[in-house]
Amino acid sequence: MHAWPASEVPALPGKGRDLRIHSTADEGPVTLVPGPVARIYVCGITPYDATHLGHAATYNAFDLVQRVWLDTKRQVHYVQNVTDIDDPLLERAVRDGEDWTLLAERETALFREDMTALRMLPPQHYIGAVESIPGIVPLVERLRDAGAAYELDGDTYFSVESDPHFGEVSHLDAETMRLLSAERGGDPERPGKKNPLDPLLWLAARDGEPHWDGGSLGPGRPGWHIECVAIALEHLGMGFDVQGGGSDLAFPHHEMGASHAHAVTGEHPFAKAYVHAGMVALDGEKMSKSRGNLVFVSALRRDGVDPAAIRLALLAHHYRADWEWTDEDLTGAVARLDRWRAAVSRPDGPSADDLLEEVREALANDLDAPAALAAVDRWAERQQSEGGTDEGAPGLVSRTVDALLGVAL
Questions:
Q1: Cα 157 to Cα 256: distance, rounded to the nearest angstrom
Q2: How far apart are CA 81 and CA 227, in angstroms?
Q3: CA distance 188 to 395
Q4: Closest Cα to residue 162, out of 218, 134, 191, 201?
Q5: Which residues span the domain enclosing 341?
Q6: The predicted structure's pLDDT at residue 290
Q7: Given strand 280-282, what is the order of strands in its sheet?
Q8: What is the distance between the alpha carbons of residues 329 and 340, in angstroms, rounded to a whole number?
Q9: Which of 11, 112, 301, 375 has the fewest Cβ atoms within 10 angstroms?
Q10: How many CA atoms lie within 13 A of 68 on its CB side?
């Protein structure tokens, strides 16, 4: 599976700061000091309704992580998956009378278009669940052979009790885990499981549903969590720098994935930091496909909204905050974009050296994009009210906003 084209990231003078960011597993901020190549895995879409603003806000957050790392003169090894086989995808295909593979291909293509328009930096490896099955099957077999998995009526489950570190990602109590498991794709009420929280690794073939050769597991298809583990281990290995996604992935997805990896490798941790973006709401409820309260990036683009304004609307909210999309978000972003473009269109202006360092400092402080926007606003106001004689300032501002915030002026 291929990703989308990369936009050029302008070079900036000097060097950025190491990123201090909130890690759910650490229950507070950690300073990330990767090696020469920073490694990040971000969980991708299930392609049956892409790309709403909740998606865009999440991928915008981890795009900022990449940009901060690039500004420290590191390379970035970024991996993202596509869950192109799962119950919600199959259910949507049945509802709409559509072939599930065509639905997945169409929505994945639309996601690529939206990411390109929003100037999100692409992953080096963009991997679908289906193409990962040859690597998933032996991983499940290894877990079974190690006593970390068991069979139930032909299906294969992971035993959470096989990992002494289980619970260290989300820090939730057992009852909360059970409730969230039922809400987010698990089956805690299924009889015969060793622990209600045990997640599915391999689903035996069902009549009328797609399935693949599972070797000694029998024909079937993979569970949700093992997919990301197989992809991350193949392309990043254990102990990569950041596991990222929306806050609704902390449990069960990231918790279970970490335990799968610990059990199959005997190593810890799976990721050094678990970073989660907040949820975007509409009309008082979290934007979600099940509720249908979605604002789509593609629809905004069709209405003629500049993707740079969409990105600025997302950047105006701290990535960890839960917030509600309103028309005023977009109106304010369009006005801000117009002010910034007018300010950098002049041949000279007030010095922007301090601005570059302010933006760097803001982003290094837990990706404080609103503070970065405020710094650019202040420069634009000085440009409007006072002007300046620094011929290089407008160009430096444009490159700073482009390189660090992903907004082309």
A1: 11
A2: 8
A3: 57
A4: 201
A5: 305-405
A6: 64
A7: 285-286, 280-282, 323-324
A8: 17
A9: 11
A10: 30
